[in-house]
Structures are given as structure tokens and as C-alpha cells.
Design brief:
Length: 169
Amino acid sequence: MKHLKTLVIAVVIAVGSMSFANAQTKVAHIFVDQLMAEMPEMKAAEAEIQKLGKSYESDIRSTFQELQNKAKLYENEAAAKTDEENAKRAQEIQGMQANIQQAQQVAAQEIEKKKMELLEPILKKVNDAIQKVGKEKGFDYVMDASAGSGIILANGTDITADVKSSLGF
């Protein structure tokens, strides 16, 4: 019985200590999506990704146009060709379709790879700036309050403007 009483007292003290420690924690928030959308580096990266996407789209579109022209030509000439030649042509069309699908997949992968390559230094810069401002202002935690982040704010310190200033814009 004495041990149980001691255990209960220890638990109450531990819980009370944790509550006191939590009351001392300083938390701020930032809107990372808004911050990144306004960064000049992000705008440049988006423009480069868009340019790359348009390049791939143009190449794929011209290949698709070539496929359509060939398919139409082969369809018009089908009656005058042998079954063997028509089968070869059908196989050629299927091969072109497969090549277009593969080109679309490669384009999507290359665009994603480029996006990650361009975003990595930007994300590092943002993270470093958030940590710097958080430490300067004495915050223990800085939470992303962007839409969809799962953070619901009642009030608190928003350091978005301070981080923008630290980044020079």
C-alpha cells in the first residue's frame, strides 16, 4: 500500500513537471507555402520547369502528329496493299504509339527529377532561414501553418515576415 501511494505521488509529480515544462515551450508558426510562392528563386525554378515541360510537350505533340498522319495514310492505302504489308504497317503504328507513351513517361520523370533538383537548394535556404529566425526570437518550435498542414491556429506568433526579411525580400 505504501509503495502504491509513493508510485501515485511520483506519477502526479512527473505529470505536473511535464505540464510545467510544456508551459515554458515557445512555439511560432510560419506559412511556408506563401513564403516559397513569393521567393524569386521559386519563380525562376517554376519558369524553368514550365519551359522544360513545354519542350517535352512540343516533341511529343510532333511525334503524335506524325503518327496520326501515317495512320491516315496507311488507312487510305490499305485497300491497295497486301495483308502482310498492312500487318507490318499496323505493327509500325502500334510501335509508334508505344514510343509516344514511353516518351510521356520519361518526360514526366525528367520533369519531376528537375523539379527536385531545383527545389532542394530552395528548401534548404528556407529551412535555414526559419531555424535562424526561430533561434533569434527564442522559439523552441516553428510549425508550418500552410493550408493542409494539419495545424489549426487560434493565435500565436507568425514569423513569416521575419523569415522573408531574413531571406532579403
